[in-house]
């Protein structure tokens, strides 16, 4: 086993400024969820500063080796805006100790770990101050001098807990620690140190929340089609934004685009004191694969992103698609539906075998004068006897006085001519 330890001094200063331990614990919970995308064994300790451990021995090959994995991890922490120090060692205690050093913080075997620890001062050990003072009184100055003493002598003079700690430090004894588990639903919250009245000022904490949410989704290998963002106010109900996607997603950049569109025209009822993000329903991620000769899958994904942005900016009810209905009457052969971005076939009917239809249909049938020139037709449509709206019509493609191409029909019940649609 190889443990990566992440020391987070910035969190200790933020918790001290906020004067609350709950804020630090909430942040560590979010970071643990984010780190789960890299390892299935994650644990943390609310020390000063807090520490986060990931076991990388079982997952490093999935990410191209230890060096590549650590590079991606550190880049992710930097993107989140956290100051950090990372170290890698075959023991959790050893990795935590190496995070205090300026260089050579990665060792891969227990022999390398011992060689790296021996010249270091005793003050770096996680031992009670009275034991450290007793070691100094005994003339010991370095960790190597302590390790060269017999284990029985150390246990007899400085207590068995000291001997156990040293064996765990060197990776010679198991070091059981509670493994953090991903919750079935996601809830994250951050509180600001001051009230914000401009949505632009919320973009950095919002981006951090969404990046942590992305890590949670990747750790569970799932996606989300809807999540809720709450803007909290003092002495006022929270403003709630429900962010919906046309297809399941898990990329923070996509989420941020949609949230920014929603915030663009949002009028805040009061200053914002905190943000909360919740998601309760998850699904399998949509996998986009390009075909060999084209990029239809990528174009489909771009269309989905465009629809999501339009719906976020204009509102869900203002962006609609069309779907066919089982009716021969043109004005009743379609209805509004949520916009679909999947590709449909034509039920085996070739496009050139279908009757020509205009792109624009009139909402109200307009009676017109008999056309001077008919280009094609007639095409008879008789339907509607079951709903008392019988239709018996002969349809023609005609040419108007201005040269426009019209779709007209002659009503067989009264002989009148009506405009059904036109080509633009």
Overall description:
This protein has 424 residues and is α+β, with helices and mostly antiparallel strands. It is 32% helix and 26% strand. It has helices spanning 9-18, 21-35, 66-80, 92-98, 110-117, 129-137, 143-147, 151-158, 160-169, 203-220, 252-264, 296-314, and strands at 3-7, 42-45, 51-55, 85-89, 186-196, 224-233, 236-249, 272-279, 321-324, 334-337, 360-368, 373-383, 391-399, 405-411, 417-422. Helix 1 (9-18) runs antiparallel to helix 2 (21-35) and helix 11 packs parallel to helix 12 (296-314). The longest helix has 19 residues, at 296-314. The protein starts with a strand and ends with a strand. Residues 344-351 have low confidence and may be disordered.
List the topology elements.
Blueprint: E1 3-7, H1 9-18, H2 21-35, E2 42-45, E3 51-55, H3 66-80, E4 85-89, H4 92-98, H5 110-117, H6 129-137, H7 143-147, H8 151-158, H9 160-169, E5 186-196, H10 203-220, E6 224-233, E7 236-249, H11 252-264, E8 272-279, H12 296-314, E9 321-324, E10 334-337, E11 360-368, E12 373-383, E13 391-399, E14 405-411, E15 417-422
Antiparallel strand pairs: 1-3, 1-4, 2-3, 5-8, 6-7, 6-8, 9-10, 11-15, 12-13, 13-14, 14-15
Helix pairs in contact: 1-2, 2-10, 8-9, 10-11, 11-12
